[in-house]
Model the fold of this input.
Amino acid sequence: MMKLTRIMLIVVFLFALISTPAQAQGGRVGWVVLVPQPDPNQPLEYQVRLMLGQVLPELLSAKKAGIVARYQVDYFVGLLSIEYTGSLPESLLRGRLPVYADQHEAIARLQPVQPGVQGSGDVIAAGTPHFTFGLYSQCVGVFNAGANSRVLIYVKDSIGNSVGVGENKMDASGGGVVCLNSTYVVPGNKITAKVYTPANLLLGTYTATTPTLTFTAINKANSVVSGKAPASKAYSIKWSHKAQDALGGYSSQTLTGTVSGAGDWSKDFGASPFVGGDEFEITVTLSANFYFHTRFVAPVIYCFLSYGQCTVFGIPRQAASLSITHAGVTHTAAGKFGNDGSFTNNLLDALGNPIVLASGDIVTGTGLPAWTLPTLSAAINYTTDVVSGSAPANRWFDVQVSALQTWVHYVGRPQSNAQSLYSYDFTSKLDLQPLSVYEIAVILTSPLTGNMTYWADDFYP
Done:
């Protein structure tokens, strides 16, 4: 069995990259659906982060070579926009993810009403056009706009300059997704939404100003999360947690309230403590037609061993640091968490060569204890359709097999034994063929800290 060579990359702060709008300045913009077949049992944002970790090395390599100017990730719908300096490639990840030149063709491949587009706890009045915007997001969820209607949305900055526009045809229920062509929505933007009949007659015009909506603090032990939002507005907040048991499923809880007159909100979710990697989404009802939401990941570290990178999550736009000790040498990066709360470090040695992360490396991030990277591996038995390998003892985790011909994912949930060995029989899910190409990923999450290690490799004849 051979392994495809992984490209290691330069030190990069993910914040600086994903928070830069993908504006076409002489180049061409391509669109990629990161999660074509989302798992309805997991938050879409979590699935987008895992896929982004796989795509990131290819994007950064292309950016370093001058092929890619900039790119932007929309976590709420799983859409990646990339500005290329020349012609568009056909795909990313060695043919697994198509790159679409037409934004609408990409949008058409998004799953209807993806998790996160509507927003947690939204209550939509029948017949009332409803626009849900994610802060620092490029795409808008639309509901009740009228069967087969056309929706046009344009955005101006606080002084009236046009910064983005988008339009799309809605489905028979009057719902759909509209993605802006060149920007994401930020506080202070002036938004206008127009709804037209199939015959292009104007049904209505709706306006709003993007509010400030943030997370400012989290107390994991006491299960309290707080932030800022428009004063005296109704809100809902959803907490999602992945269980580290045999099922590995997500549980969620939604609470509602009213923002204080001073613009503060805070919610206590009860006796169960938060764990790193827990997902939070707050949605504010700005008016009968406009809802705004934003997301937050409880402080945690994700490391992608196969790609040599680690990401720490924290309070968006606050100070961030991340250090990795490899072969006795500590490499440290500092800056700010991005709009999505992430900060990433990819390692180079003194000569500029990439450093491959290894088991035993020690990682620390803002406000988090030191964490030692575990040993993970996998192998395929094509006769029995069993995937086996090594992982820390007595742990439940995910093993994902992806068929590169179709890029369909098959997930198993094994438990390692006391000797740190595991096996999982995929017979009921797929027939592993020795002449086919597969990617196997082992995704291990700490039940105590939520820290995640993602190991992956390609297997081919």
